[in-house]
Specification:
Structural class: alpha+beta
Largest sheet: 4 strands, antiparallel
Strand order of the largest sheet: 1-2-3-4
Number of strands: 4
Distance between the termini: 78 Å
Radius of gyration: 37 Å
Strand content: 15-25%
C-alpha cells in the first residue's frame, strides 16, 4: 500500500517528464495565441515606417504635437474661455452656515436639558461669527436684523493662510 503523502519516485518522475514535455510543446506560441508578440511586431513595423519617412537629421524619437481639437491653445483666446467655464458652475448649490458658537457637553448634561435651559457657548458677545460654505470657513461677520429677519454682514474674508491657522486651533 502506498502513502498518498509520499508518492514513489517513479510516479513523481513520470509527472515531471509529462509536465516538461507539455511545457516544451508550448515554447513557441503563434502570434494568435500570444497578444504581446503581436503587439511587439506591430510596434516594430510602425517604428520602421517612421524611420523611413523621417529625415536623416532627426534620429531621435519625433514628438507629435497634439491637435487643437484635443487641447485648446494657451495663448490668445484664454480670456474668452474663463467666463464660460465659470458659468458652468454658477448654478451649483452650496450650504452657507453662520456659526454663533460651540461647546462640549457630557451625555449627562445633555439629558438634563429642558425647555428654558441656557447653554454657554465658547463665542463671546460682540465677537464676529464664522461664515462657513459647505463646512469650510470663508469669512467672518456680524449679525444684523433686516425686515424682522436675521442676516449677516461680512466684515472680513478669510485668506487661505488664516484658514490654515484656524484649523490648527
Amino acid at each position: 500500500m502506498t502513502d498518498p503523502n509520499k508518492p514513489d519516485d517513479q510516479n513523481l518522475d513520470d509527472e515531471w517528464a509529462a509536465a516538461m514535455s507539455e511545457q516544451e510543446g508550448d515554447a513557441t506560441p503563434s502570434e494568435e495565441e500570444d497578444p504581446w508578440a503581436a503587439a511587439m511586431a506591430e510596434q516594430a513595423a510602425a517604428e520602421e515606417a517612421e524611420g523611413d519617412d523621417a529625415p536623416a537629421a532627426d534620429s531621435g524619437a519625433a514628438a507629435q504635437p497634439a491637435s487643437d481639437s484635443v487641447f485648446q491653445p494657451l495663448e490668445g483666446g484664454q480670456d474668452k474661455a474663463v467666463p464660460r467655464d465659470l458659468e458652468m458652475i454658477m448654478d451649483i448649490p452650496v450650504k452657507l452656515t453662520v456659526e454663533l458658537g460651540r461647546t462640549k457637553l457630557t451625555i449627562k448634561q445633555l439629558l438634563e436639558l429642558a425647555q428654558g435651559s441656557v447653554i454657554e457657548l465658547e463665542g463671546l458677545a460682540g465677537e464676529p461669527m464664522d461664515i462657513l460654505i459647505n463646512g469650510y470657513l470663508i469669512a467672518q461677520g456680524e449679525v444684523v436684523v433686516v425686515d424682522d429677519k436675521y442676516g449677516i454682514r461680512i466684515t472680513e474674508i478669510i485668506t487661505p493662510s488664516e484658514r490654515v491657522q484656524k484649523l490648527n486651533r
